[in-house]
């Protein structure tokens, strides 16, 4: 059934997003990401997938669709230069970090990704991300790339297959493994060659050093992998987060470092190595700290995540509160202060290194490592931009890192990444200026994706179940603003069947804000859910109250006009 479904989606998408003969964006404010300057009253002609003319007073060809962009800003589509489509962002997606397979088998997490990949990719587009670079996963991803790259409501996907690794977690000892340990130069070369028929866009190495096996001892394997890849004109991306390992990776010929150096401040030797060898540096500032979210670091969940991510993997991050894992829960609670402290130290090192490298002219590209536990697909991009801003980069510098530098990382700057004649027509038509506020990147009026004109509000379907899950996620995070967002302004709260308790979002704010503040262990477990049309019925178990009180309840959510309009509570 699944291949038929995918083909049907492709047919529907091509019908819904059919290309015009030509599209003329007229009189917009064009952002030159190379210089950080704005050129006013500029028109862009798009024919097919390409930009064919840029200038003033361009005459629209016959049958062209003309869009008035007066007072709008025209930006290249964004690039997330580091994601993983084999990971959902939820609690169960990395069993090597949280082994909870007895509750949710790894195969179930993987099937969820396949079933919801269309939604995840559309969320990238809604965030203005028209290109994603998947830096490693199972071989099955090559077929997904080829399918979804035909889909107008999907970002352009570049990817590689299994990580050529010096270490393999036991949990990934699978038939189609995303990570494959190689024990010799010959095995490394064979793994590169195995991927060649799939036409990889590059090759990825997981360069892990340990006390038992140092980076120096593995160097010849890394060098052989890179040499074989370069022989086939493939760039090589390397995971190397320690300064010494990163230097060895560059010495071996790495083209891309997919993470920050996070253990030490970079030195002059490293700065020179990156610049001399034109190595791309992708900082991924937020991903490592997000692994502390299941322990209770709710502050790392952004409002972007609550609003723009798929809410179901996000909701799983709270599951440790109710799973029968008292020892794991207690251990994580005990270590949470130390985890937060380590995050603070590591964040400072990474941000200082980013600022120094950018200021010295290194090629910095924006990437999130989305799909890892707590780093949600699409929405995490804006947390990454905030972290880059906190490192001291200007909005113009960040936009450059998020567009043309992402293309340069793959050596494809002639194809996309800036608004220039001959390049792919990936264009954001923005209502407000992103150089003034990066959040304005979300203020999309239109989006062009490979020349297809898309209205952003058509990309994400907000169903009644999604609204119910969004408010549940925010409840468990005790985030009052995110909690209230799915509710209508005049929401009505009832005791079942018809006893009105109160009405209005502001009254709701008062009641729940007080509870969130005074109940730090508050947690709602979703026991069961029924969805019938615009009604969602949740069976809930709420804990965290004084005296270990447990509340068993049924909540009935009635949705009207895209918001929760009435809630009926039935308590045991």
Average pLDDT taken over every residue = 95
Determine Rg (CA atoms, Å).
24 Å
How many strands appear in the DSSP assignment? Answer: 24
The general outline is: globular
Taking the sheet with the most strands, its summary is: 8 strands, mixed
Count of alpha/pi helices: 17
Terminal-residue CA separation: 42 Å
Low-confidence stretches: 1-16
Fold topology:
Blueprint: H1 2-16, E1 23-32, E2 37-47, E3 50-55, E4 65-68, E5 73-76, E6 78-83, H2 106-126, E7 129-134, H3 141-148, E8 156-159, E9 163-165, E10 179-181, H4 185-195, E11 203-206, H5 219-231, E12 236-239, H6 243-252, E13 256-257, H7 268-277, E14 280-281, H8 287-290, H9 303-308, H10 311-316, H11 326-359, E15 363-364, H12 380-390, H13 395-401, H14 404-409, E16 427-430, E17 444-449, E18 452-454, H15 464-477, H16 480-484, E19 487-495, E20 499-503, H17 505-518, E21 523-532, E22 535-543, E23 551-560, E24 563-571
Parallel strand pairs: 1-4, 1-5, 6-7, 7-8, 9-10, 9-11, 11-12, 12-13, 13-14, 14-15, 19-24
Antiparallel strand pairs: 1-2, 2-3, 5-16, 16-17, 17-18, 19-20, 21-22, 22-23, 23-24
Helix pairs in contact: 4-5, 6-7
